[in-house]
Structure formats: C-alpha cells, structure tokens
Amino acid sequence: MTTYDVVVVGLGGAGSATAFHLAQGGSRVLGLEQFGPVHAHGSSHGRTRIYRTAYLEGAEYVPLVRRAQELWFSLQETSGEPILRKTGGLMIGRPDSRTVGGARRTAQTCALEHEMLSAADVARRFPQFALRDDEVALWDPNAGALFPENCIRVHAAGAVDAGAELHYGEAVQSWTAGRESVTVHTRSGEYRARSLVVTAGAWTASAVPELSLPLEVERQFMLWFPATDRSVTGPERMPVFLWERGPEEHTYGVPDFGDGVKVGTWRGKVAARPEEADREFHESDAAPIRAFVATALRGVGARESTHTSCLYTNAPDHHFLLGRHPSHANVVVVSACSGHGFKFTSVIGEVVARLARGEDPGYDLAGFDPARFGAGRRAP
Ligand SMILES: Cc1cc2nc3c(=O)[nH]c(=O)nc-3n(C[C@H](O)[C@H](O)[C@H](O)COP(=O)(O)OP(=O)(O)OC[C@H]3O[C@@H](n4cnc5c(N)ncnc54)[C@H](O)[C@@H]3O)c2cc1C
User: Fold this and answer.
1) Pocket around ligand 1 at a 6 A CB cut-off
2) Mutation test of ligand 1: which of 91, 342, 345 has the most ligand atoms closer than 8 Å to its C-beta?
3) Per-residue pLDDT at 281
4) Among the atoms of ligand 1, which is closest to the Cα of residue 219?
5) Is the distance from CB of 146 to CB of 343 less than 8 angstroms?
6) How many other C-beta atoms are found inside a 10 Å radius of the C-beta of residue 314?
7) What are the start and end residues of each CATH 3.30.9.10 domain in the chain?
C-alpha cells in the first residue's frame, strides 16, 4: 500500500489550497476528489467571489483575511493568472443593520481603512446604486473579486508541480484513524497516511459522521444581468457590494467582468444533504432578485441572461469549522463556508497544512472548533 504524509479529501476551494501548501512545504500529499477538477457541483463555482476586509462577521476574521489577500496576490504574481481584482466594496443598509453596523465595528476595532457614505455621497460617487434615503454605505477600499475557478486550478497545478498526487473521480467511502496513521478507503483502493484533512464542503457531515455535525446545506442561485450602460457596470467603476434591505433581504453583487453584473441572495432553501438540495430554478428564486435589481441598480437590464445554482454549508452560528477532530489529533476537519468562506481558502490552506503537520496554526482558532456543537468529543 502506498503511504503518504497527508491525504486530503475534496479538492475544491479549501482542499486545493491545502494540497498546495502541504506539497510546497515538502509533504507527500494525496488529494482525492469525487468529481473532476474545477466542477460545478459544490460551493466554489460561478466565476467570482467577493473579497472584503471590514468583516461584518467579526474582528476575529481580520488577521486571516489580511493574510489571505497576501497569499492571493502572491498566487497571482507567480502564476500570471487573474486571481483577485481590487474593485473596492460597499456594505449597504440602514446604519443599525448588521451589514453596515458589523462592518463598521470591525473596521474601527481593527483600524481598517474605510469611509462612511450617506445615500447622497453614494449617488455622487457610485451612480449605479440607488440607495433609499435612510440607507448608508461603508466603503471598503480593499475589497474586490476573486476568480474561484482560477484559484482552484492554480492551487491544484502548484500542488502537482511540487509532487502531490491528485486523483479525480475517486470518492472517499470511509476512513479509520489510529494514533500513528490513518487509512482511507475508496472504490479503487486503500491509502495510508500520517494525517487526514477533510475539506469536503457540502459533504462534510457525511465525511465525519461520528461528529453528528449540525450542518445544513443551502442552495442558492446566482443570476447575471446584462449591462445596459457599461460605463457604470465594469470593475473599474463598480465595486462589489453587500446590501441589507431588511432582516430577510440580503443581496450581494459583483461588477460585470464580461458576462453581466452578478447578483445573488442568501438565506434560501435548506436540505440535510447535498443530494437532497433542490437545484431546479423556480420563478420564486428569481423574483426577489429581479425586484431588487429593478429598484436598486442602474445600468443593468431587468432580466437575467443566465443563472447557476451553488451550495452553502451552514453551521448553526455561521462560523467556520477549522481544527483538529476531537477524537483524532491527526485528522483535521474544515468547512469554510456558511456562504462567506472562499476568500479565506488561501490562508486556510496554509493553516491546515500546519495543523496536519502537527505544528502551531499561527492563529487563534478556538471559535472555529469542529467540536463546539457538542458531539464526538473524546470521553474524559
Ligand atoms: C452562491 C454562493 C456565493 C458565495 N459567495 C461568496 C463570496 O462572495 N465570498 C466568499 O468568500 N465566499 C462565498 N461563498 C462561499 C464559498 O464559495 C465557500 O465557502 C467555499 O467555496 C467552500 O469551499 P470548500 O472547499 O469548503 O467546498 P468545495 O469547493 O465545494 O469543495 C469540497 C470538495 O469536496 C469534494 N468531496 C466531498 N466529499 C468527498 C468525498 N467523500 N470524496 C472525495 N471528494 C469529496 C467535493 O466534490 C468538492 O469538490 C459563496 C458560496 C455560494 C454557494
């Protein structure tokens, strides 16, 4: 049986970055992916992802998001591929909304560059957005758009260049862990390694069933609206944005990189497992997004030209899972999702590589403990 230092289960956003950092650091890596390279069945497709720094989810994310940006720009420089494009970002809503209030708190706590804009300021500087009079915006000049398919492709290629073996179309069926090694089973064979990393995205709960993780899989649609006025919709003029119009009305958008302005919402239909997620596109999915575009955006058509579905993996507290398995120190469990994880996958790769080697991760990961929901703890 071939043996490795680390087996990585799942080669999407987090897994490809982990394989990259492990292999670049000299580890013998095997990556196993159930689908092909850069596929559209999980959480990391759809051409763009928002990168932002004034992190409304909490100041604890800021050291990670800063390091993530350094790593993305470094990947862009070494690969010559488009990875991260800075556009700036607007967090829009009423001053007391979570989107604006949370971003402002983090920006102040961490002394991040930012500016508060009134509706009139936004109308002057960003005429493509039509704010209500009682709405304001936080300007995050360091926000931008990532190109996730490129990120995954470049990370995977870099891992292979550094000696990693990546097997596509090979699903992990089960694994067992002892003190010194783990054994991983697929239909094609059995592999042994010192450590295991589970970066299985929407399949995380079934990849570590003994933890009974209370994760919900949420399917969401992204819609692309054709530009009617390219002078205001391109990335040189239009920032990425998050917009909270009400407690249940959360919308985000990305400028036109050639295929229209991308708009989506979050908090949608949930299922227990990815296979049960309803991927069919219903009028009820499009209607709120079209209504938002009609009233809030200028320079785009009223009907989308195309759409695609994607899966979020939500933890009950909407924070990541990132840490060692409570019963097996040589197994690392990662779910960097809850709808906001892609921007972190570069730094997650670096952190997980350290954990898998038994090193200090370099960050306080207490809030991301995979065992925080109670199940699967080692008996005292
Ligand atoms: C519509 C949408 C919009 C989003 N917008 C943003 C955004 O603007 N900014 C942001 O930062 N984040 C955003 N996110 C979240 C972000 O995209 C995800 O957090 C991130 O892509 C998750 O990466 P992952 O590696 O965990 O999952 P994935 O990339 O899906 O990778 C998991 C991989 O594991 C594989 N796998 C699973 N089980 C097995 C098995 N048993 N054997 C082998 N392989 C297996 C899967 O096939 C898959 O390839 C968004 C997500 C969605 C869906």
Assistant:
1) 9-15, 32-35, 42-44, 46, 49-50, 171-172, 199-201, 203, 207, 220, 222, 264, 310-312, 335-337, 339-343
2) 342
3) 82
4) 53
5) yes
6) 19
7) 86-143+216-314
pTM listed for this prediction: 0.96
CATH architecture observed for domain 3-44+149-212+317-368 = 3-Layer(bba) Sandwich (3.50)
Task: Give the separation between CA 110 and CA 104, rounded to whole angstroms.
Answer: 10
Ligand 1 atom nearest 340 alpha carbon: 12
The distance between the two most distant Cα atoms of the chain, rounded to a whole number of Å, is: 67
Stretches in the chain below the pLDDT threshold 70: 267-269, 375-380
Tell which CATH architecture fits domain 86-143+216-314. 2-Layer Sandwich (3.30)
Nearest to residue 334, comparing CAs of 317, 326, 322? 322
Give the E-state strand segments of 3-109 in sequence order. Answer: 3-9, 29-33, 49-51, 84-86, 89-93
Tokens of 275: 């296979």
| Tens digits of residue pLDDT in 191-215 | 999 999 999 999 999 999 999 999 9
Burial of residue 77 (CB within 10 Å: 0-12, 13-18, 19+) is exposed
Rounded Cα–Cα distance for residues 315 and 341 (Å): 12
Counting DSSP H helices and E strands in the chain, the numbers are 9, 20
Ligand 1 pocket, mutate which of 33, 38, 44, 344 (most atoms under 8 A from CB): 44
Strand order across the beta sheet in which 144-146 lies: 49-51, 144-146, 84-86
Q: Output the CA torsion sign for 84, 88, 93, 96.
A: positive
